[in-house]
Design a protein that fits this description.
With 296 residues, this protein is of the alpha+beta class. The protein has a single domain, classed as (Glycosyl)asparaginase (Glutamine Phosphoribosylpyrophosphate, subunit 1, domain 1, 4-Layer Sandwich), CATH 3.60.20. The chain is built from 8 helices and 12 strands. An 8-stranded mixed beta sheet has the order 4-3-2-6-5-1-11-12. Strands 7-8-9-10 form a 4-stranded antiparallel beta sheet. The longest helix is centred in the N-terminal third of the chain and has 20 residues. The two termini are 24 Å apart. The structure holds aspartic acid.
């Protein structure tokens, strides 16, 4: 049964209009691929490209800047037959998810990082692109000002308290196609003002995403916390005997115990949807049995 779910990050209530429009456009585009008989992989990639192109997401165009004012992005894909590919800390590209797919399909590796990932993209003929927008630059300047005032932060205690205002607009998608195959994607520029070279959970299989015959899960939120708990794998393992919703709720209870700001979306083997988070909002849209639902 064709099913798809996407999210635009677990975080604050900022920019809800833009983020809602982005998840709805994305889920509709992904579902159109499934309706034409396309694969879960193509649907999840198409949905993610739309989210990366939205200026309201922290992925692709309009991504958050690191401490040195550069954009370093992470993206990943995994299918339920355990194939996977990711890029980490990649710069100057519009759609990191496309390169992640090529890592999976065209190389013997699972993750390419930094300059190596950029060189690989160049070999593929992917054009250079500066993802910085006026809005992302403005946010960077605003938060940098706070850093300079020397306050602490929830995610990075040595940085200022910008995180209250920070929207974790990372994106993720999970699709199930007419053959019952599942694909999961993630894409992000990570946490704004992160140290250069920092890799979050987004391209880490088992943490930021996981898929196997039981189902697929995509995570968003505080990457370091999500990695410590291997949160996506916890939820997928639970789907062997529980529904998608029961499984993400279980994993989110675990995250809450450890005070981790995060969210999860899921599709289980029977095409059932799950979503849960520990924060103010996680704009999420899904289409199941032909009906679109939007949730925060
Ligand atoms: N999980 C991402 C990271 O830590 C951030 C996010 O989901 O917003 O890089």
């Amino acid at each position: 049964m064709e099913t798809i779910i996407v999210h635009c990050g677990a975080g604050t209530l900022r920019d809800m209009g833009g983020r809602k429009a982005a998840v709805i456009d994305s889920v509709e585009a992904g579902y159109a691929v499934l309706e034409r008989g396309g694969s879960a992989l193509d649907a999840a990639i198409q949905a993610t490209i739309i989210l990366e192109d939205s200026p309201y997401s922290n992925a692709g165009r309009g991504s958050g800047l690191n401490l040195e004012g550069e954009v370093e992005m992470d993206a990943s894909i995994m299918t339920d037959d355990l194939r996977c590919g990711a890029v980490a800390c990649i710069k100057n590209i519009r759609n990191p998810i496309i390169v992640a797919r090529y890592v999976m399909e065209e190389t013997d590796h699972v993750i390419l990082a930094g300059k190596g990932a950029q060189r690989f993209a160049k070999i593929l003929g992917i054009k250079r692109y500066n993802p910085i927008t006026a809005r992302s630059k403005e946010l960077y300047n605003k938060f940098l000002k706070k850093v300079k005032q020397g306050k602490g932060t929830q995610y990075f205690p040595h940085l200022p308290d910008y995180i209250k205002h920070y929207n974790a607009d990372t994106v993720g998608a999970i699709a199930m196609d007419c053959k019952g195959r599942i694909a999961v994607t993630n894409s992000t520029a990570g946490i704004m003002l992160k140290l250069p070279g920092r890799v979050g959970d987004t391209p880490v299989f088992g943490a930021g995403l996981f898929a196997d015959r039981a189902g697929g899960v995509s995570a968003t939120g505080h990457g370091e916390g999500i990695i410590r708990l291997c949160l996506s794998k916890v939820a997928v393992d639970s789907m062997k005997t529980n529904t998608a919703q029961q499984s993400v709720s279980y994993a989110i209870r675990k995250a809450k115990k450890h005070k981790i700001r995060c969210g999860l979306i899921a599709i289980d083997r029977r095409g059932r949807i799950g979503s849960a988070h520990t924060v103010d909002a996680m704009p999420t849209a899904y289409i199941t049995k032909g009906t679109l639902t939007y949730k925060e």
